[in-house]
Amino acid sequence: MKLLGNLPDPFLAEIAGQPEAIRRAADAVAAQAPSLARLRDESASRTPVFTGMGSSYFACYAPVTALAEAGILAPQIDSAEVLHFRRAALGPGSLLVVVSQSGESAEAVRLLRLVREAGSPDGAGRPFVVSVTNGLGSSVAGAADLALDTKAGEEHGPSTMTFAGALVVLAALGRVLSGADVDRAVGWVGEQAARAATAAEALLGDAAARAAEYRSWLGARGTLATLGRGAARAAAEMGALALKEAARFPAESLEAAQFRHGPLELAGPELAAAVIATEPATRALDEGLAGELVEAGAAVLLCTPEGGAPGGALSVAVGDVDPSLAPAVAVIPLQLLAWSLALERGREPGAFTIASKVTTRE
Hints:
By secondary structure, the protein is of the alpha/beta class. It has helices at about 10-15, 20-30, 35-40, 55-60, 60-70, 80-85, 105-120, 140-145, 160-175, 180-205, 205-220, 230-245, 255-260, 285-295, 325-330, 330-345; strands spanning about 45-50, 95-100, 130-135, 145-150, 225-230, 250-255, 270-275, 300-305, 315. Strand 2 (about 95-100), helix 7 (about 105-120) and strand 3 form a beta-alpha-beta unit.
């Protein structure tokens, strides 16, 4: 928490704790190299399927995008859909990656119980299950054939450190599933995590002033869309989730191309749009959309590696970070905006009053 000195509340402390969480996760990846080697062996003849709920599900956008770019199509399906409608499609040829930061989410816990009951005691007839959780003492980790720990640490508010840590471990997992040597995958993740942590620190160095800048950018607008493609969808979804959870602000996340298919009619002075343009393949398209929204009178925040933006938009420099880890940095402006809005509305930032940190019932 050294970034901000005397922090006024736990939620801001957890936002500020993300750079160190990224570094802890990278250290955890290195310590779990034997588990990654087993993952490589078990994945040889299996199709990876990624599942989770909420922030855990959103983190999966990064590895499934990286795998697809490596020629491996890995379905991403939320755990409730798998549990009730798609479980029969899983079999011994599946590698089920279950991401659950708490390891106690109702859907994931029940899903794994039913998956294990469907197979024999030696695991035959069912998927090989890999869990990615914060700590290894949870129900999900205990039910997995191979459990990976993000080492995110204790967290009480909306997902911040746990999301960042999950992205790091999932980046390593994705590299191994794509065929990379384990030692090289571990080294690559260590390098990229160090870049991401440094970039996150740059955005958190004067967090209160930045939060005020983002709050001024939003103004009195009551409609906020968060837009991204590929791995950047993880940041867009998490930004909208943080605004809803921490500030009760009704933000909506959309895939950037989908925004043109109808929602573009929202463009105008009453709209605020955060565009996460950290995917090289679609950056020009995303910047073009940002420019059109500015011309229509919308308030636009644009996140790019070096911070370039069309005139009239607020630019945020994410830094030279691999797209698979860039969401951990690009989400920070929206987290700080959520914190600022919560304070303005007289709420305790990050405190749950209706939902809970861990969702233990459907």
